[in-house]
Specification:
binds magnesium ion, 12 strands, binds adenosine monophosphate
Amino acid sequence: MPIQQSIPFDNSFAKEMDGFYVPQVAANFPKPTVVQFNAGLAKELGFDEVVFNSDEGAGFFSGQDIPDNAFPLSQVYAGHQFGGFSPQLGDGRALLLGEVVDQKNTRYDIQLKGSGPTTFSRRGDGKAVIGPVLREYLMGEAMHALNIPTTRALAAVTTGEKVMRDGFQPGAILTRVASSHLRVGTFQFFAARQDHEKLKQLADYSIKRHYSEFANHKEKYLELLKAVQAKQASLIAKWMSVGFVHGVMNTDNMTISGETIDYGPCAFMDHYDAKVVFSSIDEQGRYAYGNQPVIAQWNLARFAETLIPLINPEDSDQAIQLATDELNKFPELYQDKWLDEMRAKLGLVDPKESDLDLVNTLFKAMDRQHVDYTKLFRKLADAARGETHDLFKLFNDKASIKSWVERWLKRLSQNNIALNECADGMDRVNPIYIARNHKVEEALQAATVKSDYKPFEKLLGILSNPYKKQDGMEAYEESASDGAAPYVTFCGT
Ligand code: AMP
Ligand code: MG
């Protein structure tokens, strides 16, 4: 079946949200070529691999060949970037082609990222290059395999042109799949203009799309705040549990759906350090690993502000009070979610009051110990099986971890399951493989410099199955050698 008829686009955003976007077309590209195709996701979404993983598919994934039932558009939004408000951002290099509904009846946006200039490009060229496109592809798939809500990659194409960045690099486009691209920044755009009607329309659309369970609730806008806050608390707890640093938690990069979005300068930390920052521009450490929960709450406060005129149109003082009461619950909400994650990672099966202190004491023991965060949890499972040697090797100061392990083993003995079983449960939630920075870099370099996608595909394969030992892949368990320069990532490339 030709591409023209093969995707049943159903464009609710284009139909219902006039004034929230500008219709747009892609730039012309000389020679689009599919370089990565996500066959598993394609199947779920009803994109036939034979049709789309092809030259014809390259036309589609580069916006050259747009089916009649698509409605390419760029969305408007605003956002706080590093704490400063930009009233006008918007999709500066992205086109929403439309929505598809998968076999499970879930609606997804199909978006091209890097498809050329739009009304919102400001000083940017609207393009993307292969390294960052593959980074987003890889990170999204890695997060998905770790059961963390995320946008995903359907395909990556090279465009056949060179794009100026740090020297000329191969131009590329990512096809991104998201539950939606509604952001805190989308609300901020209309709130800043005091356009309460549009805000209501946006809130109603968001509720219909993501939280239909309270569509008829009489306080549905307060419910929306609660629901987004709960989703974000859960999301950030999951990031923290795997050592993920998003790197650019601006309000335009925080979704209403609760999915992780925009893998620009993100990275996984190798060694535990609450202050770790990878992004070259995050000089103050605003988006450091340990700051992420606080920043999430700050972003949610910006979201809450936009909802004030909807929560109570007659009495803003009352609306502010209600919203503030909700926001104040965030630290506890987050801590509960985080403790759930940590309990699972540490095999604490039947919750006990003392678990929070136990977990906090472990983090204190890790402080300034240069502990490999990912390895730690697998070695703890081994310790539960009686092998403590490799665990203690991870720490410079062995005394504090030794006394902690004694306490922890005592706690495990209160579980109503055997130690071995408990250790197996830990192994099911603690990854062996994360996207180690030097391995990511190696894979992106090979693709960028030599058009060699083999290292990328190998890494993608390993990260798609992170909990199970894969023979011969020991090198992918290791961080870069200690002498390596600190890892630095870059935004918006
Ligand atoms: P990000 O840091 O990727 O979340 O992007 C922040 C804003 O900058 C968004 O409005 C993007 O659309 C825009 N942007 C990033 N890179 C480019 C580019 N190369 N051309 C145009 N706009 C861009
Ligand atoms: Mg963004």
